[in-house]
Amino acid sequence: MEERSYWLAWSKIPGVGPVVLKRLLQRFGSLSAAWSADTAALGTVTGIGAQTLKTIQKHRQAGSPTDLLTQHLQKNPSFWCMADQAYPRMLAEIADSPPLLYYRGQVQLSEHQGSTPMVGMVGTRDPSEYAKRWTRKIAFALAKRGITVVSGMAEGIDTQAHIGCLEGGGRTIAVLGTGVDMIYPPRNQGLYQKIQEQGLLLSEYPAGTQPNRAHFPRRNRIVAGLCRAVLVMEAPTKSGALITAYQANEYNRDIYVLPGSLDNPRAMGCLGLVQRGAQLILGIGQLLDQLGTIPPLVADPPAAAPTAQPALPPLQAEILKVVRQLCQQSGDGSVPFDLIVQSIEGSAGEVSGEILQLELQGWVTQLPGMRYAPTS
Known about the structure:
- By secondary structure, this protein is α/β, with parallel strands linked by helices.
- Helix content is 47%, strand content 12%.
């Protein structure tokens, strides 16, 4: 508790940002020791100049960090500092991790420790129907696989990512550019409540912080820092989603991109990321396989003895049988979706839903051009 008060006190000093705070920690071993250091010693820390030293001295004379914490907790009862074990481990690794992280909702420590994988999903606030549909579909699949979906609760792609994850019964984290007590945009009030009940709301800004244009690009680094991989679903050449992708690349995170059309200006930023080496999303099965190769931060418990695969429901079993038969007859070992529908007594929507379940269970793999092939 004592060290938390010093993290709070230092974070309130203008000119002392996340990078300088980490340098203070490295130089003095704790921020409480740094608070007691003389100005000559503080001046040896890179990033602290003469004007910042004067500001530090003024704040140190203004009051006690303990009293500051007591006052702060009245409006901000739930926050972590980097001295807390609950502070997300992945986020702590980046150079400019936020000194304080406010939260509201359901805390799951396995996410913070790195044993539960987290994947970011970002994109434009004005997406195409194609991007909306695939964002929701992929978020649903990630939720079913036990992967936590992280986004920013903005309009467009962010909203679809959170909704798809919640529909899949999974956990989702919203990183806000306001205080965690603020709902922005206001139309997402219902979504905010669902995330609070089924996931987590995070922000580096204290309660009462109103929307500010400068805050939203800053929060993107938190999305990138929390996650093992970031999916860019649709983004024009000037997009906040690209900022997230660039930061994710800087943090050595994997970047995946939903393929878009050259005729769609909202996809040109994604195509630029592919040119820079981002990986293409070529289907849900392929994406889940690639994400599955990302190792956890902590060792997993010994694997349980393999169990028999449960029997498939009748329609899924019939679809799988048809896919296998048709693929044996085709030259490339895959079959188009419309041919599957023609061979099954069911609507296109019903067959599509059952094929998605087969993908999630690892029975079939989607290939480019809405073609499918058996994987077992």
